[in-house]
């Protein structure tokens, strides 16, 4: 499946890729820039995964607080 420029732009926006990174990815045209695009996309994936892990730690902490408070109920 070949991505159109518009489809790629829409996907990047949906994934909340920062505008400056979106511009860099979209500026690359053709196969000669494919490795640069992959590098930038991988960086965004790592960033999102870090955000996910941080959110999971927060959820775990909230679960601990909820559990602790429930144990204190009569």
Task: Give an overview in words.
With 74 residues, the protein is mainly α. Helices cover 78% and strands 0% of the residues. Helix 2 runs antiparallel to helix 3 (34-72). It is rod-shaped, with a radius of gyration of 19 Å.
Instruction: List the quaternary state of the chains.
Output: single chain
The succession of helices and strands, N to C, reads: HHH
Structural class: mainly alpha
Please state the CA-atom Rg, rounded to the nearest Å. Answer: 19 Å
Low-confidence stretches: none
Major sheet size, sense and barrel closure? none
Percentage of residues assigned to helices = over 70%
Distance between the termini: 60 Å
Alpha plus pi helix count: 3
Mean pLDDT: 93
Count the beta strands: 0
The shape, in one word, is: rod-shaped
Report strand %. Answer: under 5%
Keywords, please?
mainly alpha; 74 residues; single chain
Give a brief description:
This protein is 78% helix and 0% strand. It has 74 residues and is mainly α.
Give the SSE layout.
Blueprint: H1 5-14, H2 19-27, H3 34-72
Helix pairs in contact: 2-3
